[in-house]
Amino acid sequence: MALSWRSWLANEGSKHLFLFFWLSLNVWLFGKTFLLYNQGLQYYYLHQMLGLGLCVSRASASVLNLNCCLVLLPMCRVLLAFLRGSQKVASKKTRRLLDKSKTFHVTCGVTICIFSVLHVSAHLVNALNFSENYNEEFVTLNAANYRGEDPRKLLFATVPGLTGVIMVLVLFLMCTASTYAIRVSNYDIFWYTHNLFFVFYMLLMLHVSGGVLKYQTNLEEHPPGCFNPNKTLRQNLTAPKAFEELFPDYTTEPFPEDLPVPEPFVQNSFMRVCSEEPKFQSHFPETWFWISGPLCLYCMERLYRYIRSNKPVTITSVISHPSNVLEVRMMKDDFEARPGQYVILHCPRVSALESHPFTLTMCPTDTKATFGVHLKVVGDWTERFRDLLLLHSNQDTEILPIFQQRRYPKLYVDGPFGSPFEESLNYEVSLCVAGGIGVTPFASILNTLLDGWKCYKLRRLYFIWVCRDIESFRWFADLLCMLHNKLWQENRPDYINIQLYLSQTDGIQKIIGEKYQALNSRLLIGRPRWKLLFDDIAKCNRRKTIGVFCCGPNKISKILHKLSNSSNSYGTRFEYNKESFS
Question: Coiled-coil segments, which residues (predicted)?
Fold first, then answer.
């Protein structure tokens, strides 16, 4: 299968180039800081004491500052939604980079973990060197109190050391709980440990305020390695031979401060004469400059989101669908959303702190204020949520008028937030592939097209839906039939191409009901033959750019991603997009 470099660049090349740039930037910053501390005169005495441990610890700290600064920005969901929806980012390729915000967040997190290991290792060496290389000549430069002091005291009995140890433990918990296995098996652990980031940042601000590493401030008056005659003779040390020959009378007395230094000595001696003792000062905590802006921005956004979502929504109806799927329809004042976006639901009676994202399957319009979500009941949170909603009803819950509605638990909605599927209406041709409950992002798009399709750029939609059991198609069977009938009435039956695949069955099955006849004719047994499907779409849409959108199992996603990068003989280019909650 030939690889189309143009398609590769459109689909994932830009992401890989950006990641390469980001890696190069971190390596450059590490090397630049390493050379500064290795060659900088202001760190001469500290370098003599600590060696390369100083350079590695400071170089890794600069990389950590950069990544701790930027790791929060991809989590500013309101900012990303604003940039996408306000058309501030006009380029479609740049907007697609916004969809990689989660990837960038993970990249920053992995970088923080890697360079934290370097930083901790270097400081362990520094603690040992501070103890063994204690310098009585420069008392203020020492972190240890005396030669041979137990290095563990520097780690556990000082503010920088103790906060560093706790930060390592917090980072270890966040890192291990972020692995795929834990997120899938127990999402609660991931959610609670990830919220320790606030503790991490508070400790980080304390960690850098200790001022352990110092630099020299009076380089002009005391160049590193210079000779101080007053101090040297006062300590009964042997003066340089040049001084003994030129000033025999002063070899046992302090060198007069007001006597000018002879020119021959200045020119011919291998060292310079200094006029005062070296002075050292702690660095201003640069980390505060790095993280204060993003941290304040993130906190302000969270405050805005809290204020925006502090009023509970009105649940108008709860519908139980086959295959353990629950539909919740709601109303909220001044709530606006675009098709393809998602919201975060928070129910205090289920969990005081926990909340979860769900894609909107119905968006409010000018004629109706109702919006809704479909959620698959898997896991503790969704099970408890379903039990609360269906506490006093059976599995065939009907839609009740608002004045007759049951007493549902309080539900808070945060959002909406942007997702890649907002772009599906901005292509002339789109291919939407759903696996099981992954159909939810496309449901809001189909609902929007049902209200009116002529105002959008989209002129042809290929809709592929793969399910394991026949009952799953009934989640949106009515919606698909209504859209199909509407397009037939408007003489545009070719606008949408619906293909339904039943992947697991013992024989020929049909969606029960006379009104679903149109869907039964599009129901196929087995799995899609993706290569033939892509070739057929490319042939029917020569020299066009087709948006490919997938929400489903990773296996399907990888196949579609690979096919989108493949070349074809029709000049058709596929741009791949995938659902990924931030």
Answer: none
